[in-house]
Amino acid sequence: MGLFSILPESLSGLETWMARLFLVLGVITIGPWAILLLYDVLLYIWRSIAHEIPFVGGRARGKARPRAPSLTERPSGRQRRFSLARPVVSVVQTGGIRPDPSDLRFRYIRGESGGDRSII
Q1: Do 119 and 84 meet the contact criterion of CB atoms below 8 Å apart?
Q2: For residue 35, what are the domain limits?
Q3: Average pLDDT of the chain, as a whole number
Q4: Separation of alpha carbons 27 and 21, rounded Å
Q5: pTM
Q6: Are residues 51 and 98 in the same domain?
Q7: What's the domain count of the chain?
């Protein structure tokens, strides 16, 4: 085998086949993801080009230019809120002790609808 082999010379054939096996396993693992990524890029390029075709393209029909999906904006245009906050759970008070509303252990944030609150 090569200079960097740790196996004896008699096992060089086994080492070669093991290297080939791991290369094939790597292609099987990464290949579908690479194909999907390539397909997505080509589809986006095709849609962008097709938008510009005169008389039949999206611009000629008054459609909006195709955009890549956004992680921070919904299709309706509203912003998405990313938070690790837990939703507020209504707890029925059975005792006479009321929780202090200015308790600094909890921080409240406003939800998207404006009315619901979450605890962080």
Answers
A1: no
A2: 1-68
A3: 75
A4: 10
A5: 0.43
A6: no
A7: 2
